[in-house]
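My current task is to audit a protein record that another person submitted. My question to you is simply how this chain folds and whether the tokens agree. This is what I was given:
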Amino acid sequence: MDSQKQSSEKSDDDPKSYDIFRDSLLRYLGYANEVGESFRYQFPRLLVPSYVVSCGYCVADAITSGIDEWNHRPSSANNVHHDRLSSSVREEDRIHDTARATIDTLLWQSLASVAIPGATINMIVKASRWAVRRSPFALPLVVMEWGPTATGLSSIPLIIRPIDALVDCLMDNTIRSLWKKQMENQDK
């Protein structure tokens, strides 16, 4: 169910292994808010649009994950030999699995691509601004103005993987484990 792990576990021979949200330049739209946070003090009007782009990316990825899950699971209507009860159970499972895939992706992307990185870059830029303002050395105005922005931008590649791992761990130990227990109880 982990959309991030599913993408990396698919084989290169599988034609469905290409995920436009993770394997193309479209992936960088998820980082738009981090760029917006870096430029917050120079171009404050770009902050909200940067979050709109990142959130749009998250929603589009979640919808696509739900559609992929729905299409992956065959409909009970396609099964010629079925009784009414098992048909409704299979259809209900299909709906639940689709909802789980959509919610899992939306939650993961919201945390790993928007909320945590945005807050992290915001804190890095604020700390950098504080440091350059309190520097015991006379710094050029360009360094005081653009140094924190450059620090924020340059930290983006450094924070991505640790945040992804943190969100995976967080979700594996909370919502995903609850879903797993729920599915195990349904199988009994």
Q: What stands out?
A: DSSP finds seven helices and no strands in the chain.
